[in-house]
Write a structure and sequence with these properties.
mainly alpha, 5 helices, about 140 residues
């Protein structure tokens, strides 16, 4: 009996407990905002640390040998910021952008074989097609 009643509400698109559902949704949104703020503060703190580390590398003339590590840290911060944006905006573009940035980071820093680059190029193409499709759907 209870499940039939629940089905009746779901068919109409109504919520059985709208006040509770709204409160839970607000709590979840608040947690997401708090997590995004924590991510941004972490990126700022890490960014300050990287700047000091970069200055130290310049002083010791090790910037060339450590450039890949510094670039890796910066790209991780970019991915983290994009993730924070995704938590706040909740749009499909942010998800695709995060995948593209993360893949670019992998391509720049970790790929050695030609096959890796080919696979990455195919994935980039698929992500660009998905993004263009989303843009077309948004404009319709």
């Amino acid at each position: 009996m209870y499940s039939k009643m629940g089905d009746k509400y779901r068919e109409k698109g109504e919520m059985m407990f709208p006040k509770i559902d709204d409160k839970i949704e607000n709590i979840i949104k608040s947690i997401e905002v708090i997590l995004a703020i924590i991510l941004v503060l972490t990126v700022v703190a890490e960014g300050v640390y990287i700047v000091f580390d970069l200055l130290e590398l310049i002083k010791t003339h090790n910037i060339v040998t450590q450039s890949q590590e510094v670039l890796d840290h910066f790209l991780i911060l970019v991915v983290t910021l994009e993730f924070a944006i995704m938590l706040i905006r909740k749009n499909p573009f942010a998800v695709v952008d995060i995948f593209m940035i993360a893949l670019a980071r992998k391509v720049i820093l970790e790929y050695d074989r030609p096959m890796d680059y080919l696979i990455a190029a195919i994935i980039f193409t698929i992500l660009i097609i998905i993004r263009k499709t989303l843009i077309k759907k948004k404009n319709i």
